[in-house]
Structures are given as structure tokens and as C-alpha cells.
Design a protein that fits this description.
Shape: globular
Bound molecules: zinc ion
Strand content: 15-25%
Order of helices and strands: HHHEEEHEHEEHEHEHH
Number of strands: 8
Low-confidence stretches: 7-17
Oligomer: single chain
């Protein structure tokens, strides 16, 4: 999640199953909390020095994500260098695809940014107070290794299911913390009308509340929330009503502070799914470490996204376009 600055306006797995039960055990397997923890421990390790865009350590993170996309069996997008899309020298978005069977020109995007603010020497707004042990590395476990782990695991899940009628793109954006630069670049590459929806995933690893629910930023701008909840209730297995909530900060700034926004400006129903509240004490703090995340909760949210997007990837649901952003 980008810091709010006022001037900014702006494996083929073989499962033989009945659809619902099989989907559920596949989800249990792929979204296992240990798999999530593994990905996040790699991305948020001290050796990656907070993944500041353009650095060698940021590039190591990109290589790791590309390797996970390869393991998932994702394809490439024409015009890119393998899984890498150059945004500017040494800055790369990482993009993998599963081609749609009958509607390949209609795109469903799952995204999350993989860059973070680096260290005290790169972070434009370094934390000066209570990093107890003189820790100067902003690990960014929640912001946003948690979202990247979700995107990687959703890629593995949908590739294993292998029944998407629309094309699904899985994207790890660079340069989010420095002004949504990777997503702005990509939003100018695709024809907006070809993008059915962007589901951006941000900070789903931690909450200070006891039983928090994921929420959708700027939910009132389209009917995506309704679609996700209807599908979740139809295909999910825990039957929680209104699993996805509205943005608690709707009149605030969360909607314009992440990689959904450049797409939303072009009319694409593009929202971020989040868990963490804006007041999180480890936000842009050196203690945003892998050890502080709730992996069981993350698993539940990613399952929710997988089940909630069933009709979108199958081509049965199309969210309303965003008309005007107030
Ligand atoms: Zn951030």
C-alpha cells in the first residue's frame, strides 16, 4: 500500500472430484498455511533488503516470483521477456497467464505489488521511532508479500483446475510504493475494454481485530463485491454471509492508494481486497516481518477469493464498469 500523499490525485494436479468437494480439497492443498509462510519468508527475508524498486534485491524477488509462476505452469504474455515486462531499466512487472478456453480475449487480472520501501537509506519516509533493535530493513511481509503469496497460490489453483473460459493474468507489480508506476505502465498496454476486472490483493496478513473480514476498496463503484459474495456463498464451503465487506475507509483514500487505481481510472472494475486496517501499527515499519502474520486467516481469505471468482473466470459474471470516481 502506497503512503498517502495529499498531492497525489490523484504441476498439473490430478484430482478426480465432484466439483464442489474437489475444489475444496484442492484449495486446502494449494493454500496450505505452510506454503504461504514459505513464500512470505523468502520475500520478506532480511537478505532482500525490503525489495526497493530498481535494486538487485528487488530483482531477486522478481526472479523468485517468476520461478513460482513457472512451477505453476503459467504461460507468457506476447511482447514480454518471458515473465518479465520492463517498465523502465531495472524495473520489471512479473506476469504469467492461463489462456481462456472460449473467451481468450477477455482478461481477469489478479495482482499484487512485490516492491516495498527498502531500508532506512531508501525509504523516503523512514520510521524514526520504535524499531526496538535498530532494525533498518522494511521487510514488507504484510505489505505486500502477503498479496504476492496469494497471487502465486491462485495461479497454482486455477492452473490445476484448468477450466477457465476467460484468460487469467497473474501479475506482481513493481514501483507501487513509488507511485503505482508498474500498474500505470500496464494499464496503458491493454485495451481497458478487454479487462473484465482487476482483483488487486493488498495486506491480507494481519489485523488487530479479533474476527476481521476482508474488505473491498471503493466497493460502491462497481458490483464486484456482490458477485464475489454470491459466488462465495454458492461455491464456498463455509457459507459465511457477506464474507467480503465494504471498505471501512470508503471516503478515505485506500481505493486510490494501490495498483487497482490506474485501471479504475480507465473504467475497469478494479478494486483491492484488503484485511489490514489503515491504522496497522506495523504499516511501513521495520517490524512488518513474516513472524507477525496470521497464516490461517490468510488461507481463508485466499480460498474466499478463489471461490468468489468462480463465475468471473468461467465467463458467467461481468462486473459493472466504473463510471465516475468522485
Ligand atoms: Zn506500502
Amino acid at each position: 500500500m502506497r503512503l498517502f500523499i495529499k498531492s497525489f490525485i490523484s504441476i498439473q494436479l490430478l484430482f478426480s472430484f465432484d466439483p464442489v468437494k474437489g475444489q475444496s480439497s484442492l484449495a486446502d492443498y494449494i493454500f496450505h498455511h505452510d506454503s504461504l509462510r514459505y513464500i512470505i519468508e523468502v520475500l520478506a527475508s532480511d537478505s532482500l533488503l525490503g525489495r526497493f524498486a530498481g535494486t538487485a534485491e528487488n530483482h531477486k524477488a522478481a526472479l523468485f516470483i517468476a520461478d513460482e509462476f513457472k512451477k505453476a505452469g503459467l504461460g507468457h504474455v506476447a511482447g514480454n521477456n518471458g515473465y518479465f515486462q520492463e517498465v523502465k531499466p531495472a524495473w520489471f512487472n512479473v506476469i504469467g497467464a492461463i489462456k481462456g478456453k472460449s473467451k481468450p480475449r477477455q482478461l481477469i487480472i489478479f495482482s499484487a505489488h512485490y516492491d516495498h520501501v527498502g531500508t532506512d537509506s531508501t525509504n523516503p519516509f523512514p520510521h524514526d521511532k520504535f524499531a526496538a533493535d535498530n532494525d533498518q530493513i522494511y521487510n514488507g511481509a504484510n505489505d505486500n508479500a502477503s498479496g504476492v503469496a496469494a497471487v502465486i497460490c491462485l495461479a497454482k489453483y486455477f492452473k490445476a483446475l484448468n477450466n477457465n473460459e476467460r484468460t487469467i493474468l497473474f501479475i506482481a507489480f513493481t514501483g507501487e510504493e513509488l507511485g503505482l508506476l508498474g500498474s500505470q505502465f500496464l494499464a496503458n498496454v491493454f485495451e481497458p475494454d478487454s479487462i473484465v476486472t482487476v482483483i488487486n490483493i493488498e495486506m491480507i496478513g494481519r489485523s488487530e481485530f479479533k474476527n476481521p473480514r476482508p474488505y473491498i476498496t471503493g466497493y460502491e463503484y462497481s458490483d464486484l463485491k456482490k458477485i464475489l459474495n454470491r459466488n462465495y456463498e454458492a461455491f464456498g464451503d463455509s457459507f459465511e454471509k457477506e464474507f467480503f465487506k465494504g471498505d471501512p475507509d470508503f471516503k478515505g483514500s485506500l481505493f486510490i492508494r494501490s495498483d487497482n487505481y490506474p485501471f479504475a481510472l480507465k473504467g475497469v472494475p478494479a478494486h483491492s481486497i484488503m484485511l489490514t486496517s489503515p491504522a496497522d501499527k506495523y504499516y511501513h515499519h521495520p517490524d512488518d516481518e513474516a513472524s507477525t502474520l496470521d497464516y490461517q486467516k490468510m488461507k481463508k481469505i485466499i480460498r474466499g477469493i478463489a471461490f468468489g471468482t468462480t463465475g468471473l473466470v468461467k465467463g458467467n459474471d461481468t462486473p459493472t464498469r466504473i463510471k465516475k470516481i468522485y
